[in-house]
Amino acid sequence: MKFKNFPMVPRVIFGAGSFKQLGEILLPKRKSSDTPVIYLVDAIFENQEISKQIPVLFSDQIIYVSTDEEPKTEQVDALVSLLKTNYPELPAAIVGIGGGSILDLAKAVAIMLTNKGKAEDYQGWDLVKNPAIYHVGVPTLSGTGAEVSRTAVLSGPEKKLGINSDYTPFDQVVLDPDLTINVEKDQWFYTGMDCFIHCIESLNGTYLNAFSQSYGEKALDLCKEVFLEDIDSSSARDKLMMASWHGGMSIAYSQVGVAHAISYGLSHVLGIKHGIGNCLVFQYLEEFYPEGVALFSKMMDKHNIILPKGICKNLSENQLNTMIKVAMAMTPLWENALGANWQDTITESKLKSIYKKI
Ligand code: NAD
Ligand code: ZN
Question: Which segments constitute the Fe-containing alcohol dehydrogenase-like C-terminal domain (predicted)?
Fold first, then answer.
């Protein structure tokens, strides 16, 4: 057996209000007044309090990015080309401020500034040759674990796949739970459930080991506190941010499972976003995760979440077949969930019957 030797985020600051320290964190990384810090910020924060607190100095630039759609390889290429045209030198830092979409975008831009070609050339495992620009992640939405992970998930012309490399993880993460104060309830739930589902899939997978279990169990306990108990909102924000971190660490050394595999199909064909896509699928996975689905239903009830219905009702045969193909191709996810003989359980007709329910 060959063991993975993977990098972790070397520096993290945690606490409500810690975002105010971003300026002092960046200061030693600044080389001259001509080498800017580039802030990639979710467009939702334009003219908001968070933007006023961004420590802009000298030639720094804030670039607001819409997250109506999840990040794309061509978007990364366009940003890299813009930065190379606008500045004679490489930036001193790339700072991503937003949810999983912006965090992944920031990681990818930091990599592509120092690596030739297009972002799509690096979708896969360990294809990145040169270290990235120093990059900082500031999550404003908790759940994906993108702040700790070794991947930057991008949709490319051919596939939705991450840039998985040792150069992908952030050099610095700022965990300020107050930045998540204004997240809408449904979005809070969907992205929070991404974390919950990471835990269930990791803890019930065949790849499980003590490393993943220790993080997964902690994350699951935190999710239960946040989504099933009556705790005050400030503690809930703190705990969900740490649940996201631990959930991400748990899957780093194992893998996700059935919900993610099926949800990738939904996202590929219909552009359904990661968090809600996982929820749409997970509700029908009692056969695979009975306890997890029971907890999920309780959480939905407690927070009065109503998921949309009939998403796959009017799909053409062609679309359904593409979804099935995309889901089936997620071999490591199925292997983790069901073992080497996963194809005994997961057939095209099985997947079709699940998609038809959604
Ligand atoms: P997101 O970043 O797409 O944001 C969802 C919505 O929430 C957007 O409308 C955004 O504007 C809004 N939002 C974010 N922060 C807010 C705030 N503080 N207040 C109000 N609104 C806010 O959502 P997400 O679920 O965090 O991320 C999904 C993305 O993460 C997908 O692209 C998925 O592929 C990726 N992902 C990556 C990893 C990884 O390890 N790299 C893991 C899981 C998911
Ligand atoms: Zn996920």
Answer: 190-322
